[in-house]
Known about the structure:
By secondary structure, the protein is an alpha/beta fold. The chain folds into 2 domains: about 160 residues, Spore Coat Polysaccharide Biosynthesis Protein SpsA, Chain A; about 80 residues, no CATH class. It contains 7 helices and 12 strands. The strands form 2 sheets. Strands 1, 2, 3, 4, 5, 6, 7, 8, 11 and 12 form a 10-stranded mixed beta sheet that branches. Helix 2 links the parallel strand 2 and strand 3. The relative contact order is 0.13.
Amino acid sequence: MPPISAVIITKNEEDKIRGCLDSLRSIASEILVVDSISSDQTVKICREYGCRVFSREFDGYGSQKQFAADHALNNWVLSVDADEILTSELQKELQIFSASNDLPCDAYMVPFSLVYLGKILKHSGVGKEMHLRLFNRQKAKFTTSPVHEGVITSGNTGRLRNRILHYSYRDISHHLEKINAYTSRAADGLIMKGRKYSRLEVIFKFPLSFFTNYIIKGGMLDGYPGFIWSCLAAFYAMLKIAKTIELQKKQ
């Protein structure tokens, strides 16, 4: 496989970007950062690491990441977020991939582990997450969903064995901040799609989502972090519907 370009989008990530960049040094021939006009030391830190940095007003996760992929020097792109760290095992696996000239696929799914309140969640509905993050940009592109953007490919898709660790939330307060922001974007997207909900769905969404994550998907096996995660995941699901109804009324 040709060399890999690692691409990252950033916005005030000075507290976490170093860990991400350290984990990319051994596997990427370039690290490209698209920064959404950070007001902290993010850009300075990235330049210290030798990254190529573009400054661009944020216009959506998918379009921002597509801009990054389009400006990469290599066709093979590894998309990571600033709060994600490649395990040493994944780094070794990608080094082997980079030395191979005969790859059967055009894109690869990567296993993810969410680190929440100091614990890797092995259950709670997130224990077996995989995301398409390594791909040949000539045969793949990002979707433009308001939240939870993804990569779609016209080629064959394979799977890597080793993981990315996702440090998405500093603490519970930070989790609540992200829930507020993401549910607003999600509601905007649902309104654009013409989706409608009833108030009855709001009432039942929280208990059903909590039961699914905590009981059916094994959140109870993740201890206290699993309980808090299941509560806030259910709150996210409920709030997204409530905000969509609120927007419906405004229209």
